[in-house]
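User: Please write out a complete single-protein record containing the residue sequence and its fold in token form, without commentary.

AI:
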Amino acid sequence: MSWAGDRARRIVIGRREELRSWVRRSTQVVIVAAVVGGVTGLAVAGFERVVVEGVLDALGRAPLWIIALAPFTGLVIAALALRTVGGGITPDTGDEYLRAFHDRRHNLGWRSLVGRITASVATLGLGGAMGLEGPSLYLGATFGAQTQPRLRRVFLRADRRVLLVAAHVRELPVFEPGDQRVERDP
């Protein structure tokens, strides 16, 4: 066999091993991303249930004077949670996800998560003006950001955003038959 043929075979064999390694790592990334996405979905469903079916429903059955004071009370509880539980963090949730996505040094920590989610439950559950999307996105991004460094063998440095994104895919709108958000033509 010629030198060129032998070299071509080594390149093909080397590429084959490189491809196998890439497929193996990609499979691991997809599996971990699916698990993190599933855990996030369960956590977000729990968060929404506590806010909507728990605190907000109970508030709806309260006397009118309590309903009138509830948003102010929620904001006070939220401010205290951000200051004490969160260690003086801001109320930003969706913006924190964007910062972490673009700045590799920005940390989404557990303490901040507990402080912001507590503040979100108080604000939303007691009638404050805010949506469920920001806290849900932040919850998933924190799960992803905290999982990725623990699995350095699976995730390369370039993959740092994979779990940030995979964890919030649950936030994509899903419309089911009978869903009131879907407009139908008569």
About this structure: The chain has six helices and no strands. Residues 54 and 172 are 24 Å apart (CA to CA). The chain has one domain: 3-171. Confidence is low (pLDDT under 50) at residues 179-186.
